[in-house]
Amino acid sequence: MNRIPVEEYARIIRDLLASLGERPAELSPIAMAAGRVTAEEVRSPIDLPTFRNSQMDGFAVRAADVSDAPVTLPLVGEIAAGAIDPEPLRPGTAVAIMTGAPVPSGADAVVPVEDTRRVGGGIEIQRGRAVGEFVREAGSDLPRGAALLPAGRRLAPRHLAALAAANLSEVAVRSRVRVAVISTGDELVAPGNPLGSGRLPDANGIALASAAADLGAEVVALELVGDEPGRLARVLDQAVARGAEFVVTSGGISMGTHEPVRQLLEPLGATVGTVDMQPGGPQAHGRYRDVPVVCFPGNPVSSQLSFALFLAPLLREIAGMPPAVRAARPLAAALTSTPGRRQFLRGRLTADGAVQTVAGPGSHLVAALAAADVLIDVPADVAALPTGASVATVEL
Amino acid sequence: MNRIPVEEYARIIRDLLASLGERPAELSPIAMAAGRVTAEEVRSPIDLPTFRNSQMDGFAVRAADVSDAPVTLPLVGEIAAGAIDPEPLRPGTAVAIMTGAPVPSGADAVVPVEDTRRVGGGIEIQRGRAVGEFVREAGSDLPRGAALLPAGRRLAPRHLAALAAANLSEVAVRSRVRVAVISTGDELVAPGNPLGSGRLPDANGIALASAAADLGAEVVALELVGDEPGRLARVLDQAVARGAEFVVTSGGISMGTHEPVRQLLEPLGATVGTVDMQPGGPQAHGRYRDVPVVCFPGNPVSSQLSFALFLAPLLREIAGMPPAVRAARPLAAALTSTPGRRQFLRGRLTADGAVQTVAGPGSHLVAALAAADVLIDVPADVAALPTGASVATVEL
Question: Sheet holding A374-378: strands in order across?
Fold first, then answer.
């Protein structure tokens, strides 16, 4: 059987899921919008700052009145932060002003408190200031109508702060991708249940669901089915009814006699094949009632690697996240690889940025994967690499 | 007034919050544990894999029976994944076996299907295999009782998968840090409300609350109070009643006459001072009814920088997250800085890893902060730096 290169299969899956890229917008309260992604450019409805205000605790003056400092001006009052419509400043006077307080009309500079001294009922200005000094003009950060955030920005706290400062209490964000996750296999039980002989806890459900949620998706169904294709069909019907935009399955795509995913979907036109990678070679994809279904192998390490290679890049893009870090790193210890297949070995980073393998290449090593920081991408023709050799790594 | 160096003030705040480091453990269902942090080392209660199973689709045999391959053996049945207690394999026979299916006693190797051919009622084995080949021994990933995850591990999907594979449905995690966030100032209104003259939307509440939540904290109160110290005291009482382990306030610590945080807390022993940084110089800290209170200035940029410098490192540590990335980067464009104070300018990264400032140094530039990727740390004695100069940056 021809083995499909990893990059080609990633393109096939990306094409299958092309419709996910067109995200409808929905409004989110800013308090709930952390990690969501702007659906469109956001413009500020107000000037930032909203009104002309003082950058310092000090005294609002006319710059012309203090050009010959030192000079003493009569002090005519105080303007606190939060003051409303302060009286215009009469020429030849000064008014105490707090940081952030509105600068009165007539004033065009602020003298910081440290350059002044109280003298009776007046204030001695010890150093002159130019027009505009320590005055924040309205709109000097961002004028009303200008772009505050671009489309596609993943909202971090500083972006939410900017939205709040612009007096926006909600923001148009991309809808979350709705995904259904289905584990298959008669041998699987939900974690925490008694394990009969030959029984295994299902690790794929939580692995794939939490990985999807981590990248901004909404998991609309998380199901564990046995080996019966009819039961799988009913669970897929439910997922479609819940609005799943795509489905990820694990298991049931081998050549055996109990392969519910293959048995249900291959007659409906699904493609079953082998990708040039280990773990994770067997792969399938198709549609069920027009909804894309991406079918990973049942082994937990294989399915997690498949997610990292075939789904994570697209979900990250939709979530406005940067791609996983790829870097060439030196090997901290020699490694061996199974030649004939491209290997994705699990690696741990050392303090100085080198990498070494964690345990062996087996696809059953879920504990070893949990201890890994990166995947090490070893070409198919390599059987061994010495300490210090440069290897391609992908962050987990 | 003496200006406290940034690093010294960070130590002061860390000492104030030292009790946060002792996190009680609590049990979380693994489905809710993404992003939580293991409170203790987790040991696997079972062997991983749980039972001896096949690494390939193929035929379970005695290695001794196939050492003179090619050889044809009678085929005595099939073992599917999920099979229970398969019959022992009789010497001189082979049994078909699926990946993951239990290897019967008596068998000690698996021959992959691609090295075989059906011949009548038997199977021709074309290549011999050594004892143990393609057999995953029970416990070969991790033996029962061995450490699956260390204490302090932030739980990513691959860790949850390992817990599930070990048949654990819950995990002991560190309790979340409980924080109360209080914005002060008569001039502030909740975002989305009409802005009267001199009124500003509160950006600090969401900025500090979402930043804390982003780093794993639980925000038990998020309040906006005016300039009245008595009202602040009542809100602090509520926060204490809700179990806040510390409080972050913004605003109200200047030298003015409407400074509720200062007016309430200074008589209770709070320290008010100035840190050698801009924006964000004015800082205060103390305790209210024994609960630590960290008091940031009211300007949104100042308070966000203060959070990044004085709270984020500790919260990241508690959340099992790596420190924010600090890197020396070349300037993509010359910059000017206000000498006399250490400046934290907002910078944007260029495609090639250089950095340039976003807008000016003003502490009112919330839109500019939203457009930034990093802070540029400019020493107090620097007034200008040329293109290409190396600057210290901290990732936002």
Answer: A326-330, A390-395, A374-378, A343-349, A355-357
Pick from B316, B304, B311, B254: which is nearest to B16 by CA? B311
Contact residues on chain A for B190, CB-CB shorter than 8 A = 169
Q: Where in chain B is the domain with CATH 2.170.190.11?
A: 53-136
- Whether domain B26-45+147-174 has CATH 3.90.550.10: no
Tokens representing B309 are 């410098």
Choose the CATH number for A326-395 among 3.60.21.10, 2.60.40.10, 2.40.340.10, 3.30.930.10: 2.40.340.10
Give CATH 2.40.340.10 domain extents, chain A. 326-395
Task: Specify the fold of A25-46+143-174.
Answer: Molybdopterin biosynthesis moea protein, domain 2 (3.90.105)
All residue ranges of chain B with pLDDT < 70 are: 1, 360-364
Provide the CA A72 distance to its chain's centre, in angstroms: 57
Answer yes or no: are the C-beta atoms of A223 and A180 closer than 8 Å: yes
Instruction: Return the residue of B nearest to A143 by Cα.
Output: B367
How many Å apart are CA A1 and CA A20, to the nearest integer?
A: 31
HEC secondary structure over A194-258: CCCCCCEECCHHHHHHHHHHHCCCEEEEEEEECCCHHHHHHHHHHHHHCCCCEEEEECCCCCCCC
- CATH class of this structure's domain B53-136: mainly beta
Q: Is the pLDDT of residue A362 over 70?
A: no
Query: Which among B102, B198, B206 has CB closest to A83?
Result: B198
- Give pairs for B3-9: CB < 8 Å, separation 24+: B3/B274, B3/B275, B3/B276, B3/B281, B3/B341, B4/B273, B4/B274, B4/B275, B4/B276, B4/B283, B5/B275, B5/B276, B6/B275, B6/B276, B6/B277, B6/B309, B6/B342, B9/B275, B9/B283, B9/B310
A304 part of contact set with chain B, CB < 8 Å:
yes
At residue B292, what are phi and psi to the nearest 5 degrees? -60, 140
**pLDDT (tens digit, 9 = 90+) per residue, A54-87?**
988 899 999 999 999 899 999 999 998 778 889 9
The C-alpha atoms of residue B207 and residue B26 are separated, in whole angstroms, by 28
C-beta atoms of B168 and A191 within 8 A:
yes
Tokens of A13: 């899956």
Sequence ranges of chain A with CATH classification 3.40.980.10: 3-23+176-318
Cβ contact (<8 Å) for B207 and A255?
no
CATH 3.40.980.10 is the classification of domain B3-23+176-318 = yes
Residues of chain A with CATH 3.90.105.10: 25-46+143-174
Q: In this complex, do A46 and B195 lie within 8 Å of one another by their Cβ atoms?
A: yes
In the prediction, which pLDDT does A363 show? 59
Chain B residue with minimum CA distance to A367:
B162
- Over residues A159-213, the pLDDT tens digits come to 999 999 999 999 999 999 999 999 999 889 999 999 888 889 999 999 999 999 9
What value of ipTM does the predicted structure carry? 0.92
